[in-house]
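Internal tracking record. Fields below are filled automatically when a chain is submitted to the structure queue. Please do not edit lines marked as system-generated. If the sequence contains nonstandard residues, flag them in the REMARKS field before resubmitting.
Queue: standard
Priority: normal
Entity type: single polypeptide chain
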Amino acid sequence: MKHRIAVITGASSGIGMELARLFAADGYELILTARRADRLQELAGELGKTFGVAVHVVPMDISQPFAGAALWREISAIAPEIEVLVNNAGFGDTGDFAQQQPERIEGMIHLNISTLTSLTRLALPGMIERRSGKILNVASLAGLSPGGPGMSVYFATKSYVLSFTRGIRRELRGTGVTVTALCPGPTHTGFEKAANAQNTRLFKWATPMEAAAVARAGYRGLQRGSAVVLPGWRNKLMAISMKFSPAGGVVEANRILLAERRQKRTANYPLQ
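SYSTEM-GENERATED OUTPUT FOLLOWS
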């Protein structure tokens, strides 16, 4: 079997953890990163024992400026060539923009946009040279929306991820390298209770998917070389509805769905 290495950010829980399990089951050597070293070590032990693959962990807060370059140095020291990059790490913050903490806004933009962009830029030259490689950028159903009052920055960052992925995907045509955007809707990843999100209209109406199901859809789409993956029929219907509805109406609908959540500001709330 060809020696394959996959890098996954935000791998300590949720979709990232489930993706790590799928890659390990398929025989990939893994480089996993997240802030929580203990969770990474626990996962590495589980995957190594269950699937017999090498798992390297790089505990790091990649929401800081220039974190992408710092992480890439760590990755390169472990493996000079990687086959797959999964940009999964991301978080959201709630509340009216004018009242949000500036450092939280900066961290969200650094993680959701800057680090993702930097890692993609650093990974691509080697992939193009080898004419082989895959990148999965975890965006969100929110990225298809014209705006989300109460989570305005989060929605905007995920719109960037989706637009960026579509653009570079076209640039890479014929290179042997593919880029895929995974756009999950509300997903059970263990954060909803801590974020007081289980009582919002969004979570009551949307029937959140399980992280494992979202990960499977993303993994299959990545391996097929799909452009955009929308897991679950409800999310597909919501995407179609947003596409053919007036932008103002969609923004107002989002305001209603997020209204209950806006009463309490949350920390580190990842919609995906």
